Amino acid sequence: MSPRRSYDQYCSAARALDLVGDRWTLLIVRELLAGPRRYTDLHADLPGVSTDVLASRLKDMERDGLATRRRLPPPGAAYVYELTGRGRELLPVLQALGAWGAPDLGERRPTDAVRAHWFALPLLRALEGEGSAGLVEVRLDEGEFHLRVGEAGEGAVYGEGPAPVEPDARLVLGVETCTAVAQGELSLPDAVRAGRVEVSGEGTLAKALREA
Amino acid sequence: MSPRRSYDQYCSAARALDLVGDRWTLLIVRELLAGPRRYTDLHADLPGVSTDVLASRLKDMERDGLATRRRLPPPGAAYVYELTGRGRELLPVLQALGAWGAPDLGERRPTDAVRAHWFALPLLRALEGEGSAGLVEVRLDEGEFHLRVGEAGEGAVYGEGPAPVEPDARLVLGVETCTAVAQGELSLPDAVRAGRVEVSGEGTLAKALREA
DNA sequence: CGGCATCCGTGACGATACTG
DNA sequence: CAGTATCGTCACGGATGCCG
After folding, report:
1. pLDDT grade for B152, boundaries at 50, 70 and 90
2. In a mutagenesis test of the B interface, which of A25, A100, A141 is the best target, namely the one with the most B β-carbons within 10 Å?
3. Which of residues 84-103 of A touch B (CB under 8 A)?
4. Does residue A22 contact residue B21 with C-beta atoms inside 8 Å?
5. Are B103 and B182 contained in the same domain?
6. What is the pTM of this model?
7. In the 8-state DSSP scheme, what is residue A113?
8. Are A211 and A197 in contact (CB under 8 A)?
9. Quick check: helix, strand or coil at residue B145?
């Protein structure tokens, strides 16, 4: 665990960076925004992080009240890490960072790892900006995830894999379309009209998108 | 200069952290949001940063298109560092970080450095949230700064010292009031009503605040 | 004197190996 | 599966020196 290296500045941004400014910390938060995750799954979706650094960051986050460690009820009893309310409040920070970094996503380098759910936060932002709400399942070539649009506050804002219950809409699209929508270059209704997004489902959101 | 240590993830937030995730970088941006600054002034307002790290970060930021180095016209010819448009677009990131970190500002530790203009971004956010606009000069015990509220885009959003031209409003307040307003605990009109903010000036904003 | 570059000690990081 | 142990490397922080 870190001996708490601080900037020692009476400034709210510096205080924030004291807690989440270390390497990997905000990316761990990005992963945990998808809900409770096991150590091994975190390690798998954070390519490049070493095991000791991951363990150290998770301890720091526990100590600082950003995350908790909990034992899942059997069967399948395992430890999972989960964000606290304070940790979930970092969502706007990650969205601001993601919005700023989106223009650099242009070319995908051969060394770049990809996970489908890394597109969840930008897409969530785009959907919220269009005033949508509901449970949305998204399928990319790289995998599947689901979004809880407009349900701020309580639980995880998105999750890996298919939606746990019947979603209000299902979207099938490619990563290029996904990044374009996430960047605001292309609105979701425009993408649907251009045939770049397949929409299914019977919820209000699905119908609205198809009619657009 | 850094050999560009990257997360190598095809994720916009990770890309952003590739550019601004290094220690001190976002705090340098915070300083440069106040307008062009000399190396020595940056060093003075970033207590704790070592000279080589500051020089290295500034070179990285130049290389990455976040800042430029420019020679001021004589007299007083000196080099100043200035944010590019891309660099200024980091304002929402710093504001999100500041908003998140504000609750930790409660107690001021004896080791904490303070600069008046570190309150500029939070206060700017609060004023914008209330729909204000104009040039506002702020005086704290620790010093003076000025805000260009609602003038997004072109130049510096705030600056150290008094306003360069007659401001639309002048505010005199204490740091406790300033943090309370910045956190949204207290609205600016409420703070004025409570006698915790002295308002002077003849602009629309000043009049509106006094009438509140 | 402002604007760095150099040197050095310490600590953080990344990779691999290993253990309960 | 969930980390801990070890180790080489690199980044950071502090001091000092140099150069216009």
Report:
1. low
2. A100
3. 89-90, 92-102
4. no
5. yes
6. 0.93
7. B
8. no
9. strand
* CB spacing of A98 vs B10 below 8 angstroms: no
Question: How many degrees, rounded to 5, is the angle at CA B177 between CA B171 and CA B181?
Answer: 85
Number of domains in chain A: 2
CATH number of domain containing A68: 1.10.10.10
Residue A187 to residue A165: CA distance in whole angstroms: 26
Helix-, strand-, coil-residue percentages of chain A, each rounded to 5: 45, 20, 40
Same domain for A204 and A123: yes
Q: Do A27 and B15 touch (CB under 8 A)?
A: no
Query: Nearest-CA residue to the C1' of C7?
Result: B52
Whether residue A30 is found in the same domain as residue A110: no
- The range of the structural domain enclosing residue A116 comes to 92-211
Tabulate helix, strand, coil % of chain B (nearest 5): 45, 20, 40
Q: Within chain B, how many helices (H) and strands (E) appear? A: 10, 7
Q: How far apart are CA A145 and CA A168, in angstroms?
A: 14
**Closest chain A C-alpha to B130 CA, distance in angstroms:** 20
Residue A132 reports pLDDT greater than 60:
yes
Of B6, B7, B113, the CB nearest to A27: B7
CA dist B97 and B118 (Å) reads 13
Q: What does DSSP assign to residue A186?
A: S
pLDDT tens per residue across span B93-149 = 999 999 999 999 988 899 999 999 999 999 999 888 888 889 999 999 999 999 999
Give A10-33 pLDDT, tens digit per residue: 999 999 999 999 999 999 999 999
Task: Provide the pairing of β-strand A158-160 with A169-173.
Answer: unpaired
- Place A146 in a pLDDT band, splitting at 50, 70 and 90: very high
User: The tokens 């649009």 sit on which residue?
Assistant: A149
CB B193 within 8 A of CB B177: no
